Structures are given as structure tokens and as C-alpha cells.
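Example record

Each entry pairs one chain with its bound ligand, nicotinamide-adenine-dinucleotide.
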Amino acid sequence: MSPSKVSTITFDSFHNIVDGQQRGGKEKHHGVNPATGEELWEVPVGSQQDVDDAVTSAQKAFESWSQETVERRKELLQKYCDHYMSYSDEMTDLLCAETGKPRQFAEWEVKGVALFFNHHMNLELPEERIEDDEKVLLTRYTPLGVVGAICPWNFPLILSLGKVIPALLTGNTIIVKPSPFTPYTTLKAIELAQDIFPPGVVQAIGGSDALGPMLTAHPGIQKISFTGSIATGKKIMAACAPTLKRCTLELGGNDASIVLPDVDIKKVAPELVMGAFQNSGQVCVATKRIYIHQDIYDEMLKEMVNFTKTIKVGAPGSGALLGPVQNKMQYDKVKTFFEDTKRNGYKFAVGEPDVAKGNGFFIQPTIIDNPPNNSRIIEEEPFGPIVPTQPWTDEEEVIKRANNTNTGLGACVWGKDVERAERIGKRLQAGSVFVNSWEKPTPQAIFGGHKESGIGGEWGQEGLKSFCNPHVLHTYKSK
Ligand code: NAD
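C-alpha cells for the complex follow.
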């Protein structure tokens, strides 16, 4: 296999990538810069023909890519990482434009991808050998075939390349579909990949939401790796059933954070706030409910409010800690949580925030002081910078309250008594529980949800298996 070279890279024109080539389309759409409300560059809307051609190319590429050694696949992944990182400044600019993230966080995401690459370079596919008197059993993990990656808009690079890296390492080929809200960095990253990988190994088709069902229905695709909302996840699982595609669903959450009475209030208050408002609350594992022990409730809330008031919200490059909400649809959705809070007379601990500033989708972060258990802000994921706090006194009761949700993605427990915090953490029904930290997923461990937060998981050594079939060779000893 020899790598193909498709282009000189520019960062102001965007194409789908099919069979190693840049492709336009009859229809076009564009993202919107959420900090200014201005339209960004045109991108082609992928068609059924594009999907069919990409699947044919991916199937052909799979024949040889799946037979390459893991060492060779890692070698090309490392080259890809170096090539991608040589454009890290341009990628950061692009990510700022499409998401509105403050530059330091856009940079963190762009460079975070390199950590994903690096971590995967140290992973090996497990092999298990069992021998008895009559036979040897060899359990290996072999690639599935063509993977369809359907991605969201909150971390467009990490959440697309976080699928590409393990899929390619395990010998699959992959077609990536970015969110229509954030097509730019993904299309460009996959364009860069064409300088390294043979045609068809990694492709990208952007477009409308209509493109997702074309991937989920396609009989030539063996797995869908999806990150996005619970509602879409359910549709995807149903759509995968007729072809019995494997699917990994990384969905939404309503993470609880439990604060024990012994914490250092001044230290923990800003951490609790950042756990809720990082990336303007648009994080699947952002803290979405904060349970503070009654003994420290007032003082902790006061410190959290003080810190929240210092948070500057603004455009990338303005020195702001938080950027805008990424798109108008989400901005309007988050505002309904503010309206619901007002209508029901729940208390804004930070004062009533300004939700409409300039043309960008900016929202000042806020905290809702002790709304009832059946309020929307307790029961639903707002995916924006608004979080409720409630007091607790009884450990058993607060564990029940934290677990009283259809979701189970992440959770946190804070306490100087680490043993107690871990004991509580072990009883929280969530895929990733953090003790004395807000939610910080890492490529070092599998990431996945319990309950309606998902099926299966990706990342880490264990996550590699989600891109594989188990393959057992039973060899009987010659008689
Ligand atoms: P979304 O479900 O609206 O869209 C995600 C992707 O699915 C997009 O690419 C979209 O075009 C595509 N899509 C839409 N309809 C489809 C269909 N019928 N079939 C196939 N694909 C379809 O989600 P979003 O608004 O982009 O992302 C926000 C949600 O994602 C939040 O709920 C958040 O918690 C969740 N999320 C989860 C994780 C995780 O790892 N668990 C990470 C980030 C975001």
C-alpha cells in the first residue's frame, strides 16, 4: 500500500473526502461563527452517492489495511499525528471560528488529540492463550470492517479523531460524519490524513442530519460509533437492527456531584463551578446537579457565586474563560431552562443573567439555588451554563437522589475523607466517577455510559475491543 497525496492544504476551502479525493456537492451548507453570528465557509452536503462510493472505497481498502501489522498501522498513525500537529495553529484558529471556544481551550482540544495518538501508540490488542491436554485456545481480536463515525459539535476534533485512532489501529477503515454545526476541523483533519493513508482507509462526508441515516442503513458498514444525544442514539440503535450492525452509543448525561462536609470550601468552590461550566456547560460529562452537605451549603454556595461572578464570557481572543453556546438551536434550548426557572419562581443564586448579548450566542453562567426534585433543571440535561445546587444531610438519601435519573454517564464525589468519598463513588450508577476532581475523561480508560447514557464504550485498552470481533482459534493437538 502506498499513501496518496491529495492536496496542498489551505484553511479556507472545505470538501468531503471520498476515496482519497476531495469532493464537492450539488448542495452546499455552512456553519455559523457562534461568537459573531456570521456565516462561515461553504461546505458540500454529502449525498447517497457519496456514501455508496465511500463504502465501496472503504471495503476495498479494508482488504489490505486489515492485513497490515499493528506496528505498521501505528507507524502511519504516528506520521499522521505529526502531520496534524504541524498545523496545530491553523487548526486552533479553525476550531475557534466554528465553536467560539476561548483560544486556550481550543488549543487544549487540538493538542489533546495528540495525547490520544500518543496513548494509543502504547496499546496492544489483547491475545489470550489457554492450553489443556488436548488443545490450545487462542482468543484474538480482529477488525470489524467499515466503521461509520457519527459525531457531535461540542468537541469536534477530540470526538471524531477519538474514534478514528482506535478504529485504524485495530485495522478497520472508517467514514467520519461531522456534525452539520461544526464540519470544518473534522473535514480538514481527514483531508490531512490523505497525505498519510491509502485511499479509503479514512474518509469524511459532511452534510445534513439526513446523512446519518444513510450510514446507519448501509449494509456495507459493520459498526456505527456514535456520540450525541440520547434521542438520536435510540434512533441509531433501531436503524442498526436490520443489518445487525455493532453500535457504540456515547450519549448524554445528568451528572451528580456530591460534596462532603469536610471539604476545603475555598478550594473546592471554583472547581465545582468549572465542572459545571467548562466549555459553557456543553460537555456530556459536565456536572449537572450539585449536592452540597447542609452544614456547608450556604458558605459553599456563596463562594461558588463569588467565583461565578468573576467569569468573563466572550469571543475567542477576548481573554474570556467561557465562550458562546455553539449554535442557535442549543442557545434557544438553554434559554428555555432560564425561562422555566423564572416562571416557577426558583432562585437565581447569581442574579438574573443576561442571556442575549450582541449577535453571538452568549449566556452568562448561573446557579439555581435549591430547586425542587421535579424541576426541569434537576431532571433534564440543559447542555449549557446553568446548574442547580441542593443541600443533603443523609448519605443513603443523597446517593438515591444522585442515582434517581435515567442517565449514568459521569459523577463526582468531593471530600477530604477519601475512603468515604470512594465508598460513595462506588455506589454511583455512572460509567466514570471522579473523586476530588470534576469530570476529566482520558484516553487511558474506557469511557461509556450506564442506563440511557449509552451502550458500550470506547478509549483505553478495553475500548479497542469495541472495534473488533473476538476470534477464537481452537487447535487440537495432533493425535
Ligand atoms: P445530536 O444527537 O443532535 O447529533 C449528533 C450527530 O448525530 C450529528 O452528527 C447529527 O447530524 C447526527 N444525527 C442526527 N440525527 C441522526 C439520525 N437520525 N441518524 C444518524 N445520525 C443522526 O447531538 P448533538 O446535539 O450534536 O450533541 C449533544 C449531545 O451529545 C448531548 O446530549 C451530549 O450530552 C451528548 N454527548 C455525549 C458525549 C459522550 O461521549 N457520551 C460526548 C459529547 C456529547
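Residues 245 and 332 are 34 Å apart (CA to CA).
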